[in-house]
């Protein structure tokens, strides 16, 4: 039987042109809420963060209610050398902080869903779409489809999702935030972030197990990013070779941990040695973040632990899951008991139905 393929059909050209007319390159004279042009002298800065400008108190109040209240004084869209625009921390941010919650700008299923969604889109959202980056075209010739290809995220149930602020976060193979799949969508810090640092997340879910060449191939093919400029990918000489070796070793260790759990051979001391290796490799690669440490705690609960040991790792994992606001993982650590064991995480689902 042939595999079923989801296809998104191209909207009519007339509809696309009706949105593309809102493209503008003079962003310094736009109100950050309504995105209409005004003389610079008529725009008033936010008195708290001094990073955004509004044409009126009405627009300022609307923006505050829509989400600026949450990230004001915390985040700012800045020019990042060699990357275009990106998000920068305006203050020190602690692990577990929710930096932003945002409703989708556009949400559409495969098929003719895009045409319907664009047709129903209000004018202000059309203006916001045309403010986003188009990897295929210059600022003067931005196209709706190019913007969608550049910025859309994969949603649940074969849907695509477009955000306004979240789309501004750049990629890094050493991310410091994670983005959930809830609505509204949250951006949560998975490590402490210093003032002035760029805030980024990992577009490629397999990056931690790939060498630099493979990671850049994925970025080039999937997001038209020619090469990553994160600290890991800009290492040189022996440091670069060692980083590649570490990430490939992580992939091997991950495979061995999964095999050990699925074959129920984790009664051996080698199981804990594998988890120790994983922890050390994550740390040296700058990946010892809250999410990865929580997954190690979850794996530990599959090993031959004493009751005290089991409760320690369960409590550690629960604390980290709460920090990340990962409700699924919180429930996992809350429900698991030493007597019943795991009820079916991704590690053991293949053989526990």
> Number of DSSP strands?
12
What quaternary form is this? single chain
Q: CATH class of the largest domain, anyone?
A: Mainly Beta
Summarize model confidence as the mean pLDDT. Answer: 89
Any low-confidence stretches, pLDDT <50, length ≥5?
1-6
Strand content: 5-15%
- Helix and strand succession? HEEHEEEEHHHEEEEEEHHHHHH
Derived structural class: alpha+beta
Look up the CATH topology of the largest domain. Answer: Beta-clip-like
- Overall radius of gyration: 23 Å
| Adjacency order of strands in the biggest sheet | 3-4-12-9
- Coarse morphology: elongated
Note down, in words, how this protein is organized.
The structure is a single chain. With 353 residues, this protein is of the alpha+beta class. The protein folds into 2 domains: 13-201, Beta-clip-like (Beta Complex); 237-351. The chain is built from 11 helices and 12 strands. The strands form 4 sheets. A 4-stranded mixed sheet has the order 3-4-12-9, with no helix packed on it. It has a 3-stranded antiparallel sheet with strand order 5-11-10. It has a 3-stranded antiparallel sheet with strand order 6-8-7. Strand 10 (177-179) and strand 11 (185-189) form a beta hairpin. Helix 7 packs antiparallel against helix 8 (270-284). The longest helix has 26 residues, at 237-262.
